[in-house]
From TrEMBL:
Primary localization: membrane
UniProt name for this protein: Phosphatidate cytidylyltransferase
Single annotated GO MF: phosphatidate cytidylyltransferase activity
Residue runs in coiled coils: none
Pfam family, one: CTP_transf_1
Family of the protein in this entry: Belongs to the CDS family.
GO BP: any one term: CDP-diacylglycerol biosynthetic process
Transmembrane segments: 21-49, 69-92, 99-120, 126-144, 164-182, 188-207
Length: 246
């Protein structure tokens, strides 16, 4: 029985790694694709994340995310207007403030924030790839440093496995990478970038804890759903755009 358990564990680990590599390669290919293809990919991602989050929190307005993304890609003002109109409509129709908040969350998180990735690509086609590598570096080094040296819980109520030691490992990796990409400016922006990558992860964990689920879906196997994979990227995109502009 022990032998079988170990074999299953190894197989599970290999499956996770294979899916992770596939997700990574596909993400990079789409990031380097022409703007129009990248736009469509983000629109689909907005729909998928919107659907996962709406299903988790009990809202039917999953279409709020792609709708906000479409208008937000035209201009920030239209995106914000769309968020407010959809949210107020949802609250007015149901006469429930909680429903207003749910619609607001879906519109911002799965719709509006994704438009920052479009703006980044418009500035520099390779900048989006650098952001992806940064997020991966923080995520991977946080995980393995925490697994090896982690002793001090970071946010036990939200994410019991996260540790301060793991965060330091991710911070160091992210800082080095940003310094390589952007020199002294990368060092200056690194703390804020890492902080928002962590916030994205903790925000995702907060939603899951609140509704009592392990993952938003199982469409990506042991990696969970699309929301589970792109949380940090979504949160760091606005900060990264400021880095590029200033």
């Amino acid at each position: 029985m022990i032998q079988k358990g170990r074999g299953s564990s190894v197989l599970s680990y290999k499956n996770r790694e294979s899916i992770g590599i596939l997700i990574g390669v596909l993400t990079l290919v789409l990031s380097l694709s022409p703007y129009e293809i990248f736009y469509i990919a983000l629109l689909v991602l907005s729909f998928l994340i919107g659907y996962e989050v709406s299903k988790a929190i009990g809202s039917v307005l999953f279409y709020a995310a792609p709708l906000t993304f479409i208008f937000g890609s035209i201009s920030s003002e239209l995106g914000i207007l769309c968020v407010l109109l959809i949210s107020f409509y949802a609250g007015w129709k149901s006469w429930d403030f909680e429903y207003f908040l749910k619609s607001f969350l879906i519109s911002i998180y799965a719709g509006y924030l994704l438009t920052y990735l479009l703006n980044i690509k418009a500035i520099d086609n390779y900048a989006i790839v650098k952001l992806i590598f940064f997020v991966w570096a923080v995520d991977v080094f946080s995980y393995y440093t925490g697994k090896k040296f982690g002793k001090t819980p970071l946010a036990p109520r939200l994410s019991p496995k996260k540790t301060w030691e793991g965060l330091m490992g991710g911070f160091l990796a992210g800082t080095i990478l940003l310094a390589v990409f952007y020199g002294p400016k990368g060092l200056l922006w690194s703390p804020l970038m890492v902080a928002f990558a962590l916030l994205g992860d903790l925000f995702k964990s907060y939603i899951k804890r609140s509704v009592g689920i392990k993952d938003f879906s199982n469409v990506l196997g042991e990696h969970g759903g699309f929301t589970d994979r792109f949380d940090s990227l979504i949160f760091t995109a606005p900060i990264y755009l400021f880095l590029l502009k200033f």
